[in-house]
Each structure stands twice: as C-alpha cells, then as structure tokens.
Amino acid sequence: MATLHLNNIVKDFGGTQVIKGVDLEVKDREFVVFVGPSGCGKSTLMRMIAGLESTTSGEIAIDGERVNEVGPADRGLAMVFQSYALYPHMSVEDNMGFSLRLAKVPKAERREKVLAAARILQLEPLLDRKPKALSGGQRQRVAIGRAIVRNPSIFLFDEPLSNLDAALRVQMRIELAQLHEELDATMIYVTHDQIEAMTMADKIVVLQDGVVEQIGSPMELYHHPRNRFVAGFIGSPKMNFLEVEVRGADAEGVEVALPGGDCRVPVAGDGVSAGDVVTLGIRPEHLALDEQGPLTGQIQVIERLGGVTSLYLEHGDSEWILVADGDVAHRVRDHVRFTFDPARAHLFTADGLALAHLERHPLVDIDRKENRASSASGGQR
Amino acid sequence: MNPTTTKKLLLTLLAWGIAVIVFFPIFWMVVTGFKTEVQAIAPPTLIFDPTLAGYNTVIERADYLKFALNSIVIAFGSTLLALLVAIPAAYSMAFLPTKRTRGTLLWMLSTKMLPPVGVLMPIYLLSRDLGLLDTRTGLIIIYMLMNLPIVVWMLYTFFKDVPKDILEAGRMDGARTFQEVVYLLLPLTLPGIASTGLLAVILSWNEAFWSLNLTTSDAAPLTTFIASFSSPEGLFWAKLSAASTLAIAPILIFGWMTQKQMVRGLTFGAVK
C-alpha cells in the first residue's frame, strides 16, 4: 500500500514561486508521470516529494501521514537520478546494497536481496565491477537496482532515460513499464519527453510554470486537452492552431467560419456566441489530403519517415502540419487541398480553455492495464 | 633547430636554473654541516675532509629526539585537529551555502594576510593565563588555528567537486549526515584530504614564529632546536648547519615520499 497526496504545495526560492499550489492524488500502484517543458517545476516537485527540497507551504502525505518534516532518509522512498548518481568508489553490489548496509541488515541477507534485484535487471555478471567500468545502460540498471533493493513504498524517477541513446531509451522504456507490472509498486516519473509520458503513464500530470495544467490518462490528455497548452504539448508533431470566427452555437455544437466554408465542431458552446474569435485545433494526424477538401496550402517542407510523411504547409499567414501516408507522392511547393473530421477538432476560447466535447472518446476511461488486457484478448480473437 | 625546440631547450635550462638556485642553500647547509667550524668560515670549497664533529656536538648539547618528538606530535596533532574542525565547516559551506558563505571564506583567508606578530601580545597573554605556555597542547591549538583557513578553503574546493546527486542518492538510501560524510564524502575526496593534511603537517613543522615565542624547552619543536644554536656564543656555522639538517631531514623525507599524493591533491579537480 502506498499512496501520495499533495495538498496545495508551494515552493518559494528566494521570492520566486516555482511551484504555485499543486494538488495531486497518487493511488496505490499507479504510474504517474510529471511532464512539462524545462523549468516548469516538475523536478522540483519530485525533489519535494523525495524530501530533498523543503516545502514552503502545503502538505505532503504518504499513506495518509504528513511527511513535510520527515527527512529524505526516513520517507521510505527510492529515487533514480538523471545522472544515475552511483557511488563511484563502490562495486555494483555495494552500490545496490548500500541502503541495507545503512539499515544494518546482516551481510548474508543483504547479498540475497542484491542478487534478487540483480537477477531482475540481468546485472549478475557485473556485481564486482565499479561504476566507471559500466556502460550508460548498465549504470542506469544499477541505479534502478539500487532503488529496487530498498523495497520502497514509492519509486521516484527523475528523467532517468535522458542520458541514454535513442535505441536504449526505447528498450529501457519498455523494461520500466514491465518492471512496474512486476514490482506492482507506486511510481512517479519525471520527464520532458511526452512519448515517455504517453507510453508509460497511468496518469499524466502536465505542468507549466509551477502550475498543474491537467491531470489525466494519456488518452484523456490526447483527446480531451483541457486547454491550448496541453493540446499543443501532448502529441507529436504539434497540434495545428487557427484563429476562426464563431458563426453560431447550439446544442449540436459550435459553427465556425473556415476559408473553405463553415464547419460544425461538436463541442459545448456555452459562453461563446456569434462573432467571437476562437482557436480551432486539429492534430496533424487528423488532417487528410483530399482533392475536394475545403482547405488549401503550399508544401514548404516534406519529412519522409517511411511509414508516415509530415507535410509542412503554408496558406496565407497560417501554417499547417499534416501527417500523411508514407507513400504520398507530393513534392515541395506543390499546392494541395485537405480536409478533417470536425468531430476530432478542438475549440479553445480566447483565454485558452477548451470547449468540452459533447461525446467522450471511448478509450479515455480505460486504464493502461485493462487496455493491455483488452488488446491481448483482441489479438486472440 | 626549429623554434619550438629552441624554446623548449631554453625553458628547460631556465627551469633547471631556478631549481638550482632554490636548492643551493639547502645543499650548502648540508655540506657545511659536515665541515669543521674553521672550514665553515673559510673560503667556500667543496673539497674538504667530512667530519661528524658538528653533529656530535649538536646531539650532545641538546636532546634531539625530544625536539623531534615534539615536532611530530605538534604537527600531526594540529593537523588532525584542523581536519576535524574543517571537515564539518567545509561540508556546510560546500553543500549548504548561504549568501554569506563566500564572504566568510574570503574573510577567513584574509586573516592569513595579517602579520602574526600583530597578535603576539594577546596570544601570549592568553596562553600564559590558560597555562598553555611551553605546552604541546598550546602549540597544537595555535597551529590548528593558523592552518584552519587554508585547510577549510582546500577542503571546500574538493567538496564542491563532488556531485551533489551522489550525496542526495545517499540520503535517499537512508544515510544520516554523519554516514553521508563518512561513507560517501570522505572516501570520494580522500586524495584531496590527504594532500590538505600533508600541507598542514609541513606548514606546522616549519613554523618558527610561534614556537620560538611560546615554548622554551618542554614543548619546543625542532625549529626552536635550530634557533638554540644561533644566539648567545655567536654564530657557529657548522653546528648550526648540522642542527638545521637534522631538523629538516624528517619533513624532507616525508615530503619526498608523499610528493605524488601532494601534486595529485593540489591539482585535483583542475582537470576532469
């Protein structure tokens, strides 16, 4: 059992507020990812949970007990650092067993626990090595092993994969997700990489300037971003935004003016009326090339990734990114027409808040594990 | 010869020249120690019958071993004490700095720029009233205070080079501050601590101002031993040289044995 509650957490660094009142509930065995651009306060927030930074105001509770005044050594957490922070003068085995040595665990038991963790991470042949004789990926594993040995109530990961090369990062990402299932532990993970967030999280916390922009499952953030920031941050390439004028709003949705004719986006139109200017948001993968399409643009750049092709389009002073099929034959400077399904579009008011979709996306409320189970059974059928 | 070779040769010659100039007095002192008093004041020469007469007289007249023991106890004692005080101080300055840390460090170092004689009176009176005149304890405390700014400063720079993450990882692993220092910080900075200690030992060993003023016989170290051969009966160069050689020999051998450690420590962190 390990839950975490943050209650109106504030962090003040010499007069500058870097965390401005964060509320969060982390359930037992949940994989929560803090994501946001650099300087958004995600690492600071994690360090406050760890106890490495003091909390200016607000309350941090682990398993319902306030821990603000408890030092990092006594919070029962384990942390994996971006730099790995292995003890350079100790062997892998001593690195992993250090917490047990401090806890005065007998040597034989210590070795047993270290071996168990080493087995999970395939570190057995490396136990006698010093950190400097390990590769980046191996060091990463040792850092994770050090956390596992401690058998913490909550695992904290501070951008653990950002020092690895791309291939290794993908591999470790999968291993970490598996590890989460295997250990069945509560994990909090900080990253600036939204792909890591989308692939591993049960719940994502999007932060900007010390404020939580949205908390939700990956699919909820993708399909129902609460505001323009989240819409732009989640998803790659970035969502397209276009300022449009409202023609009218009713129970069926909001009608907006587009260059190629009006279009009805099925969102709740409370508070908007004809003549207002709103922002239309459409993800690049939801735009489709269509010779009869209402929108036009000239191709400026083509990025061919093989499987898909990203087209960077320009029309007047608006720019679009369109993700098309990998085999699309267009060339730079071609003029193309394209369209989109209004049901997949988003509208944001002038202050950046999203108008709620009338229907919730069917995948939004499925959590990650059920998601896996259903895809597995889907495969059997 | 191309210009770089010429330059290299000139630099080498210069280096040798400086080394000879620096080393010559020591060499001459050692040589003079093996002369008779008459040869010592005769026109300088390297050709003479070496004699141990100087050494014999010196050892007969004073208890060399007692002075040497005092030197050892005082130099190592004050160094140990300085490290014990400086490690926690440098820890807090390196890892828990405040707005005033930088200023404090500079101020500490600035005390080394004042002439010690400026505080001779107060220190003498304090020592007298505390009963520390001519005691090893007295000199140990004075030398500890004398070396503390340098020791703190050096340890501070070594500690600052230790990645903060490693200590934080230790904290997450359950280490209290004391364990963090003993199991992580000290092993990681051992070369630096060793060179700091060596420097403090050497500075204490060679210190003469306070030892001459605050000790007479019981606690007198080797610097006092040398001085006792200079004054009342006039200068006897051979004996004085023999005494000086005896006084610097231990620290010279010690420094020579540890020079690798010294250089490593003094350049520690300069090159990653």
Explain this structure:
The complex is a heterodimer of chains A (381) and B (272). Chain A is an alpha+beta fold and 381 residues long. Helices cover 26% and strands 33% of the residues of chain A. Chain A contains nine helices and 20 strands. In chain A, the strands form four sheets. In chain A, strands 6-7-8-3-9-10 form a six-stranded mixed beta sheet, with helices on both faces. Chain A has a five-stranded antiparallel beta sheet with strand order 13-12-11-14-20. Chain A has a five-stranded antiparallel beta sheet with strand order 15-19-16-17-18, with no helix packed on it. In chain A, helix 3 (107-120) crosses helix 4 (136-149). Chain A is elongated. The two termini of chain A are 36 Å apart. The model of chain A is unreliable at 371-381 (pLDDT under 50). Chain B has helices spanning 3-33, 37-41, 53-61, 64-95, 101-110, 120-129, 136-160, 164-172, 177-188, 190-206, 209-214, 222-227, 237-257, 259-266. In chain B, helix 1 (3-33) packs across helix 13 (237-257), helix 3 crosses helix 13 (237-257) and helix 8 (164-172) runs antiparallel to helix 9 (177-188). The A-B interface holds A 50-52, 71-74, 77-79, 81-83, 85-89, 98-99, 102-103, 146, 150 and B 163, 165-166, 168-176, 179, 183-184, 187-188.
Could you list some keywords that capture this structure?
heterodimer; A: 381 residues; alpha+beta; Rossmann fold; OB fold (Dihydrolipoamide Acetyltransferase, E2P); 2 domains; 5-stranded antiparallel beta sheet; 9 helices; elongated; B: 272 residues; mainly alpha; MetI-like fold; 14 helices; 74% helix
Series of secondary-structure elements of chain A, N-terminal to C-terminal: EEEHEEEHHHEHEHEEHHEEEEEEEEEEH
Average pLDDT of chain A, rounded to a whole number, is: 90
Greatest interface by residues involved? A-B, 24 and 17 residues
> Any idea what the CATH superfamily of the largest domain in chain A is called?
P-loop containing nucleotide triphosphate hydrolases
Shape of chain A: elongated
- The averaged pLDDT of chain B comes out at 87
Total DSSP helices of chain B: 14
User: In order across it, which strands form the biggest sheet of chain A?
Assistant: 6-7-8-3-9-10
Count the strands of chain B?
0
Give the termini separation of chain A.
36 Å
Q: Hey, roughly how much beta strand do the residues of chain B contain?
A: under 5%
**Kindly, what is the distance between the CA atoms of the first and last residues of chain B, rounded to a whole number of angstroms?**
35 Å
- Class per helix and strand makeup of chain B: mainly alpha
CATH topology of the largest domain in chain A: Rossmann fold
User: Which spans of chain B have pLDDT < 50 for at least 5 consecutive residues?
Assistant: none
Helix content of chain A: 25-40%
Number of strands of chain A: 20
Tell me the name of the CATH class of the largest domain in chain A: Alpha Beta
Number of helices of chain A: 9
Provide the succession of SSEs of chain B: HHHHHHHHHHHHHH
Structural class of chain A: alpha+beta
